[in-house]
Design goal:
The structure is a single chain. The protein is an alpha+beta fold and 595 residues long. It has three domains: 158 residues, no CATH class; 113 residues, PAS domain (Beta-Lactamase, 2-Layer Sandwich), CATH 3.30.450; 153 residues, Alpha-Beta Plaits. It has 13 helices and 20 strands. A hairpin with a 4-residue loop joins strand 15 and strand 16. The relative contact order is 0.07. The model has no long low-confidence stretch (mean pLDDT 88). It binds 3'-deoxy-guanosine-5'-triphosphate (GH3) and magnesium ion (2 copies).
Length: 595
């Protein structure tokens, strides 16, 4: 889809990846821990909330039981009262009867007491009658006539005197005492009696019941309620596998582990701490309400390595401890889940941003890429291609301006080429020719004359040379000025050029000294040409530079020819021509001499 060959694409991508990574890191290191703590707290709150609900539930169970107990007790009390009041009216009736028949008084009394002794109600409950001296008149288990004044209950309190006191002082009343239900029963139980005064015969009648009966009912009900609570608790999970349990000071009441349930777990060691877990829990209940410890898992029993946290509460109404315990790792599971999700999303965003930005950067930079390629071609010297400027953004502008720049460059280069050519040409001619006369200069002459010397030698052809010098040239300069001197020099050069053959080499050898090299020409031929030139010059007139006067001048010429047997180079030939020219000067000037 896109290539990463472009350096700029790679750089921009790197920046984007860096920024997105930075953003991701910020999320991971700043936001995630906050999310974690919030979620962990939520989970903790949830566990605590569950505990609270169980506490409320248990509390309501306790209240329910308490209500039941009260209700049940008052029900029983009412029953006791009702029975006694019925018997009481029976006794009143008997008493009235005895008043009316004083002769039968004892019999009537005996009859009614017999009757009373036979009354049974409820769970084999009975009535008793005791006179003001604490002597038993009616009692199913105590012999008639037994004095009960000194019979104490297991707490050392007198029983019958208390009943008498309540009945005589308030007319009627309840008394509680501890009694063995059956003789020799090692577990005495609390008993509740109701006694009513019957002053007419100086006696009290009463009945009683074992509070234990109510207790038993309460216990039954408690068990039922607890088992209901158990069902609720067992279907409640704290975290994934955390649970709730209830224990009292005797045993574990409700626990998902049936091996522990019903057991006295006071001696369960807290494996991590070398203390008793029961003690730790009780202590936590009265302080922070939280306990952290290592414990095993239902799925990994006996392996006490898992961090657990327990929230514990004491319910005074039930004398129960409720514990909500969870595995720390599970409480953190939700946050870990979210954590992973966020990380996955971050990685996805990173990847997506990489792909999308790579695609768009590439698209965006395509014109620049093209431009770079175009520039590369232009850099290699091809000024005829241009960038394609399609976009109307800065890159488009850049491309347009680039093209304008290349146009200008091409223009400049073409101009420069032309100028360089001109300059090169000029330099070239300057290198070989003399600017005033346009004849070859001395340096070039040395080159070409040597070559021609070698050529003539190879081909065994004659080669002649004439040295020309203007006579009394200083005078011309002194008389007409240097500029006129130049005109004279130019004139001689032009005459030489016109009169020489094409193959002859004319050279300005010095200030007003010239050489004409004549390939394939003997000394005679050269002397003849030299004389013709001399003659032509003699009759040539030049105008002074201000065109005021006509000037004529003469030349002296020395001619020499190569002698291949003697001359090893052209310099020797030049020297001879120079010598010949010197001779011409010496012998009167305006003449040709040869050597
Ligand atoms: P001779 O007959 O003995 O040659 O006498 P002459 O005066 O010509 O003596 P010579 O050849 O020694 O003098 C050359 C003079 O030419 C000296 C110099 O001032 C002059 N000269 C050399 N080059 C140029 C030039 O390019 N232009 C002008 N106007 N004068 C030049
Ligand atoms: Mg000279
Ligand atoms: Mg001269």
């Amino acid at each position: 889809m896109f290539s990463l060959n472009s350096k700029i694409v790679r750089k921009i991508l790197a920046i984007i990846v860096f920024l997105v990574s930075l953003y991701t890191i910020a999320i991971v290191f700043l936001a995630l821990p906050r999310i974690d703590t919030t979620i962990d707290k939520l989970e903790e709150d949830n566990a605590k909330e569950i505990l609270q609900q169980i506490v409320v539930l248990t509390d309501s169970v306790a209240k329910n039981l308490e209500d039941f107990k009260k209700e049940s007790l008052s029900q029983h009390k009412k029953e006791l009262k009702d029975i006694v009041s019925i018997v009481y009216s029976m006794m009143e009736e008997a008493y009235i009867k005895s008043i009316a028949n004083p002769q039968d008084k004892d019999k009537i009394k005996k009859d009614i007491l017999d009757k009373i002794s036979k009354i049974r109600y409820g769970n084999n409950n009975y009535l008793f009658v005791i006179d003001y001296n604490c002597t038993v008149l009616v009692h199913p288990f105590v012999k008639k006539g037994t004095n009960m004044k000194n019979v104490l209950d297991i707490k050392g309190e007198p029983i019958v005197p208390r009943m008498l006191k309540v009945a005589r002082e308030f007319g009627e009343g309840f008394t509680r005492y501890w009694w063995s239900k059956n003789n020799g029963d090692p577990h005495p139980i609390e008993k509740l009696s109701y006694t009513k005064d019957f002053p007419q015969w100086k006696m009290i009648i009463g009945t009683g019941m074992y509070i234990d009966d109510i207790q038993k009912e309460v216990q039954k009900r408690k068990q039922k309620l607890l088992s209901e609570l158990k069902d609720i608790m067992k279907s409640t999970k704290v975290g994934k596998t955390g649970y709730i349990y209830i224990f009292d000071t005797n045993k574990m009441l409700i626990h998902p582990n049936e091996n522990i349930e019903g057991k006295d777990f006071k001696k369960f060691k807290n494996p991590g701490k070398n203390s008793y877990i029961y003690d730790d829990l009780i202590k936590a209940a009265s302080t922070t309400g939280v306990l952290r410890y290592k414990w095993d898992k239902p799925s990994d029993k006996g392996h006490y390595v898992y961090d657990k946290i327990s929230w514990i509460k004491y319910i005074p109404s039930m004398k129960l401890y409720v514990v909500s315990s969870a595995y720390v790792s599970e409480l953190k599971e939700l946050s870990r889940c979210l954590h992973n999700k966020i990380l996955r999303i971050a990685v996805l965003i990173l990847l997506l941003s990489f792909i999308v930005s790579a695609y768009y950067i590439r698209k965006l930079l395509q014109p620049i890429h093209e431009l770079a390629k175009t520039a590369e071609v232009i850099a290699k010297g091809n000024y005829n291609i241009r960038a394609i400027a399609q976009t109307d953004d800065e890159i488009g502008k850049l491309a347009k301006n680039f093209n304008i720049m290349v146009d200008t460059l091409q223009d400049h280069i073409q101009n420069l080429d032309k100028k360089v050519q001109e300059k090169t040409d000029a330099l070239k001619s300057l290198a070989v020719t003399d600017p005033l006369t346009k004849l070859y200069n001395r340096r070039y002459f040395a080159e070409i004359s040597t070559e021609l010397f070698e050529l003539a030698k190879r081909e065994n052809q004659p080669l002649s040379l004439m040295m020309i010098d203007i006579d009394k040239f200083k005078n011309i300069n002194d008389t007409y000025g240097h500029q006129t001197g130049d005109v004279v020099i130019e004139k001689l050069a032009s005459v030489m050029s016109k009169m020489k053959r094409e193959s002859d080499i004319a050279c300005r050898y010095g200030g007003e000294e010239f050489i004409l090299l004549l390939p394939k020409t003997s000394k005679d031929g050269a002397t003849k040409l030299a004389d013709r030139i001399r003659e032509t010059i003699e009759y040539t007139k030049v105008l002074t530079h201000d065109s005021n006067k006509e000037v004529s001048f003469t030349i002296s010429v020395g001619v020499s020819e190569v002698d291949f047997e003697k001359d090893t180079n052209i310099e020797a030939v030049i020297k001879r021509a120079d010598d010949a020219m010197y001779k011409a000067k010496k012998t009167g000037r305006n003449r040709v001499c040869s050597l």
